[in-house]
Every structure is written in C-alpha cells, then in structure tokens.
Automatic annotation (TrEMBL):
<protein>
    <submittedName>
        <fullName>Rrf2 family transcriptional regulator</fullName>
    </submittedName>
</protein>
<dbReference type="InterPro" id="IPR036388">
    <property type="entry name" value="WH-like_DNA-bd_sf"/>
</dbReference>
<dbReference type="Pfam" id="PF02082">
    <property type="entry name" value="Rrf2"/>
</dbReference>
<dbReference type="InterPro" id="IPR036390">
    <property type="entry name" value="WH_DNA-bd_sf"/>
</dbReference>
<dbReference type="InterPro" id="IPR000944">
    <property type="entry name" value="Tscrpt_reg_Rrf2"/>
</dbReference>
Length: 141
C-alpha cells in the first residue's frame, strides 16, 4: 500500500516518538538499527522528514534527530514521503475520476479510501508508541 520509503518513515517516526520520551536525540546509526533499514536509505528518508518540518536535525557529537512538533499524524508522515495520492487519487490512475465521472472501481474504492483517510488523519504517533515501549509491538523482525 505504501512505498518502502514510507514504511521506513513511519517506523522512524514511531521510534523517535519513543526515544523522545527519554528526551534524547537519536543518531542515524541508532535509528537505522532500530528499524532494520540501511543507513544510506535511512539518511535520505530523514532528510525528507526534516524538509517536511516533521523532524529537527541537530549537528555535532551530541547531535541527532527529534520530532519537531506534537502531535504528528500518520497522514503527515505519509504525505511527506508518498504524497496525498493514496487518499485523493483514482485507484486506476485516471486524471478525472469523481462521483459524476467515475472509473469502474470508484464506488467500491471510495469507502476504503475514505476509511483510510480517517485512520491516517486521526492516528497520532503517540497513539502507536505504547506497544513499542511496553515491548509487545515491534518495528523490525
């Protein structure tokens, strides 16, 4: 459903939400290891999240990354990496698809898209960190 970069971005943001509880900055290597992502790929995703104003980057020996604002929704994370197309675009990729000019899948997909939009809009990172902190949810195998 989401691109691999977006999946990693969500994992990064949940991890940073957990780390921020301890008021720590997280370094690239720590983040990469925590989510099971290659460092170079993680660095590119982190740059995108910083550009989207979801993260702050601090340089230097004690530097690292932290969330830039609270609360952050899943929709903000997904939009920063994959755009809003998953909740706005036609499932068949048609430029003009609406209730008045629907594609063959429009009516079936509309309810799924609307529900996904609701989940992404109203789910905050704080809603997802509890299981990680408690140790019964995981960000990697």
């Amino acid at each position: 459903m989401f691109s691999k970069a977006c999946e990693y971005a969500i994992k990064i943001m949940i991890h940073l939400c957990c780390v921020q509880e301890e008021e720590k900055l997280a370094g690239l290597r720590d983040i990469s290891q925590a989510i099971g992502s290659p460092e170079a790929y993680t660095a590119k995703i982190l740059q995108q999240l910083v550009r989207a104003d979801l993260l702050e980057s601090h340089r230097g020996p004690a530097g690292g990354f932290k969330l830039s604002k609270k609360p952050i929704t899943l929709l903000e994370v997904v939009s920063a990496i994959d755009g809003k197309g998953i909740v706005t675009n036609c499932v068949l990729g048609l430029k003009e698809c609406s209730s008045s000019h629907p594609c063959p899948v429009h009516d079936k997909y509309k309810s799924v898209r609307d529900q996904l939009n609701q989940v992404l809009t109203y789910t905050q990172l704080n809603d997802l960190k509890g299981g990680i902190i408690e140790g019964n949810r995981f960000l990697k195998l």
